C-alpha cells in the first residue's frame, strides 16, 4: 500500500504538474494549486529527506534551503511580512522538485519508461480526440490546441521508439518514431521541434560512442521504409490546401529567423530588454523588486505583478541572478554527468531520460522549463545510480545508496534489494 502511495506521488511529480491531465487546460484551477502545493512540499523535503539524497543533491539542498530562507528574510525586512510573494519563492524552488522526485522514486520502485509513453499517448488521445480539441486546429500558431510544455512530453516516446528501433530493428518501432516526431512537428511548437532534433542526435551519438547496446544503424531498412512511406503518402500530401501548407512551412521557418516571425520577434524583443537589466544585479537578480515591476511586454492576460519571461536562462538570471541559474544547471548537468560516468552502457530508461534532459536544455533557450521537467530530472538521477543485477530479472535493479553516513537508522528508504556502498 505504501509503495502505491509513493507511485501516486511520483505520478503527480511527472504528470500532475502539467495541463496534460487536466484536459489540456493550462488555466485549470487545480493545476495551479497542485504546482503551488507540491512545490511547498518540495521545500520542506529539502530538510526532511536530506539524509537520503546523493552527495550532489545534498549540496543543492543546502543552496536551495539557504536561498529560500534568504528570500523569506528579505520579504520580512523589506515588506514587513515573511511571505510577500510566494510566486517569487516557489519559482526559485521549482528545481528542488528534482530532489523530492529522487527520494520518491527510490520508494516507488523502477518505472519502465514504456509505461510513461503509454500514459502520454493516452492523455493525448483523450484531450485531442475525445475532447475534440484537435478539430479547432488550423495549422497556425494562433490555433494550436497544445501548449509547448505538453508538446515537450512527446520527446519521450520519440526517443523510446528510436532506441527500440536501433536495438531490435523492427519497422513498427521506426514508424512509431516517425509518428512521434511528425506529431511534434504537426503541433507547431518550434522550440520542441528543435529540442527533439537535438535529443535524437544525442541518442545517435550515444550509439556511436558505444553507450548503447545497439549494432549500428540499419541504413538500408530505414531508407526503404522512407521510400515506401513517401509513395503511400504522396497522394494525401498533394490533396492538402496549398495556402495552409505554405503558412505551416512559414511558421516552421521561424526557427531559423525569429526576427521575421511574429511570436519569435516578440520573444526576442522581450529577451533583449531583460538581458539589458541583468548587469545591474548580476549575482542575485532582481527578486521582489523585479516582481513589483511586473512584465514589460503588454498583454491583457498578464498579471499586474511578476514577470512572464520566456527563456529559462534569462528568467533565472533576471530574477535570481547567476546564483539561481547556477543551481538549476548544477542539478541538470550534474545528473547528466553522473549518469554518463557511472554507467558503461545505458539501459533503456537511462538513454531516454538522458536525451530528454538534453532536450530540456535546448527547450529552455526559448521557454521556461515546465515544472514537471524537474520530476524527470530526479527520476534520471535515480536511474543514474542504479545498476542491473544478475540475481534478478532484467527489469529489476539494485539501487546504489551513496549516502555518506554510516548510521543505518537514517536510511528507512532503503529496500531489501538495495546494495549499500559506504
From TrEMBL:
Residues 176-327 form the O-antigen ligase-related domain. Signal peptide: none annotated. It is a multi-pass membrane protein. The keyword Metal-binding does not apply. InterPro entries: O-antigen_ligase-rel_domated, WaaL-like. GO terms for cellular component: membrane. Keywords: Membrane, Transmembrane, Transmembrane helix. The keyword Oxidoreductase does not apply. Pfam families: Wzy_C. The chain crosses the membrane at residues 5-22, 34-52, 59-77, 83-104, 116-139, 151-166, 178-203, 223-240, 317-340, 352-385. It is found in: Membrane. This is O-antigen ligase-related domain-containing protein. It comes from Spirosoma radiotolerans. The lineage of its organism: Bacteria, Pseudomonadati, Bacteroidota, Cytophagia, Cytophagales.
Amino acid at each position: 500500500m505504501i509503495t502505491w502511495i509513493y507511485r501516486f506521488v511520483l505520478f503527480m511529480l511527472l504528470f500532475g504538474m502539467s495541463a496534460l491531465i487536466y484536459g489540456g487546460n493550462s488555466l485549470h484551477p487545480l493545476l495551479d494549486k497542485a504546482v503551488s502545493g507540491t512545490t511547498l512540499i518540495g521545500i520542506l523535503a529539502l530538510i526532511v529527506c536530506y539524509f537520503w539524497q546523493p552527495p550532489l543533491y545534498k549540496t543543492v539542498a543546502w543552496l536551495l534551503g539557504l536561498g529560500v530562507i534568504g528570500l523569506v528574510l528579505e520579504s520580512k525586512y523589506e515588506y514587513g511580512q515573511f511571505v510577500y510573494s510566494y510566486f517569487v519563492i516557489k519559482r526559485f524552488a521549482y528545481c528542488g522538485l528534482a530532489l523530492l522526485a529522487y527520494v520518491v522514486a527510490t520508494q516507488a520502485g523502477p518505472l519502465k519508461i514504456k509505461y510513461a509513453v503509454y500514459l502520454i499517448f493516452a492523455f493525448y488521445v483523450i484531450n485531442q480526440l475525445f475532447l475534440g480539441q484537435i478539430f479547432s486546429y488550423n495549422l497556425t500558431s494562433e490555433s494550436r490546441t497544445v501548449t509547448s510544455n505538453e508538446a515537450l512530453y512527446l520527446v519521450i516516446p520519440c526517443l523510446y521508439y528510436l532506441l527500440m528501433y536501433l536495438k531490435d530493428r523492427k519497422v513498427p518501432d521506426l514508424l512509431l518514431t516517425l509518428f512521434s516526431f511528425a506529431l511534434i512537428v504537426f503541433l507547431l511548437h518550434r522550440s520542441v521541434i528543435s529540442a527533439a532534433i537535438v535529443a535524437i542526435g544525442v541518442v545517435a551519438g550515444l550509439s556511436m560512442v558505444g553507450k548503447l547496446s545497439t549494432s549500428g544503424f540499419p541504413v538500408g531498412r530505414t531508407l526503404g521504409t522512407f521510400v515506401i512511406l513517401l509513395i503511400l503518402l504522396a497522394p494525401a500530401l498533394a490533396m492538402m490546401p496549398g495556402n495552409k501548407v505554405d503558412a505551416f512551412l512559414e511558421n516552421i521557418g521561424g526557427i531559423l529567423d525569429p526576427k521575421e516571425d511574429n511570436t519569435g520577434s516578440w520573444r526576442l524583443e522581450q529577451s533583449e530588454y531583460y538581458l539589458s537589466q541583468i548587469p545591474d544585479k548580476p549575482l542575485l537578480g532582481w527578486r521582489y523588486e523585479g516582481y513589483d515591476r511586473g512584465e514589460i511586454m503588454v498583454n491583457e492576460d498578464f498579471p499586474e505583478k511578476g514577470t512572464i519571461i520566456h527563456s529559462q536562462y534569462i528568467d533565472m538570471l533576471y530574477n535570481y541572478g547567476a546564483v539561481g541559474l547556477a543551481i538549476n544547471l548544477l542539478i541538470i548537468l550534474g545528473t547528466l554527468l553522473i549518469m554518463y560516468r557511472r554507467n558503461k552502457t545505458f539501459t533503456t530508461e537511462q538513454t531516454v531520460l538522458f536525451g530528454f534532459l538534453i532536450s530540456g536544455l535546448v527547450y529552455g533557450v526559448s521557454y521556461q522549463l515546465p515544472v514537471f521537467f524537474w520530476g524527470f530530472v530526479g527520476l534520471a538521477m535515480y536511474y543514474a545510480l542504479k545498476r542491473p543485477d544478475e540475481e534478478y530479472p532484467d527489469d529489476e535493479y539494485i539501487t546504489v545508496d551513496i549516502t555518506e553516513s554510516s548510521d543505518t537508522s537514517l536510511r528507512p528508504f532503503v529496500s531489501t534489494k538495495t546494495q549499500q556502498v559506504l
